[in-house]
Write the structure tokens for this entry.
Amino acid sequence: MAVGLAFASLAAIVLILLWPLLRDSAKTAEVGTPADLLFWQIQSIDTMKYSRDLAREKSNDESFDAVIDDTMEKISQAGCTHAAIGTPYDEEFFPMIGRWVKAARKYNLNVWFRGNWSGWEGWFDYPPISPEEHSKKTGEFIINHSEIFTDGDCFSACPECENGALGDPRETGEVDSFRAFLIDEQAIMAAAFNAIGKRVNTGLINMSADVAALVMDQDTTAALGGMVTIDHYVATPERLKADIENLIIKSRGRIMLGEFGVPIPDINGDMNPAEQAAWINAALDLIAGDKRIVGVNYWLGAGGTSALWSEDQALRPAYFAVKNFFQPQIIQGVIMDESEKPLGGATASFFGQTAYSDNQGYFSMLAEGGKQGVLTVESSGYYGYAADWTNDSRCIAVVLSRKNPGAWFNYKKKLIDLFYPGGNFPAAPEACDENKK
């Protein structure tokens, strides 16, 4: 009996001494990096009041390039992946498209092309065009102007198509023909981009949320690549979230928020700058982290009541509300027990965002930029952990204490304390840059 206890003690001592080496050798080559660095795959700010409405007026004004450049710089600095431009696709306006695209590329932005043929809605006194002409011209435009596109761009041929020649299906009752047009034209766009060898997203076919609720059934959504793109203006952030949820349930698709912004006076009344920023913050907070929502395009940068900056280029508080979500902070760390064994499957939570640790104990999640508060960590069989998280935090090591450690664990811990006094055993996992907190 005595010999057995002595052998067990010796084995435990050897294990304790060799543990750092054994632990390191068991690690994978790369402990882990955040899987997603952004809340949304597409983060965009719309420029339509400048890129479309001024397309003819500024066509020969070279000084307007400075405005375009400043706009794209602001969009880039807000953390956008894309800039939405609404310049019409007619040849008259192609040079203006080129000016906007050139500025976007300067700031490493993809472009969401959200123009249309002027004849569809009667812009700039163009004569009406038929649905057949619309589709034919769209395919030719892509083929003939392949140089303006790059991989990762988005192209919408008919934003809010219900405003043009087909008519609004809520009024005409022609739901099936409306669906057929969208599906056929999407196929034409996809074929054209395939022909020029560019990976451009053609699935963002935006429409009002009410039209989407009528048109985008499950079959139509699937035929259009599983995406429902809505331009939606509502009174409250809660209504925005609820309407998105209802469309997801109806369509079984993912959502692109093609337009949203405040204030729209008829819906939101007047707002001061602080109220505008607070509304935007609340809305984005409700939808951030929902993987069923793939993108957000804020309406708009400048030129309207919901603008993020004024006509004199001064940034409003709303700009920073958008930026804080488009440039989120990464909360990350490693969770372990008192012997610094990594704990997989532990739950870390911060202001409604939740992450689970992997088998190396590593976790990461996104949170609104600049947000500070309490990070909580829980794991079955362990006491919970709570600590203040600040912007300065980079990567933390979280140690959870067992609720019922048992005799063997207590014995190992005594040996650890004996051989590594002062709590320096073992070193914190290398996935964390900071010391244990």
In short: The chain has 15 helices and 15 strands.
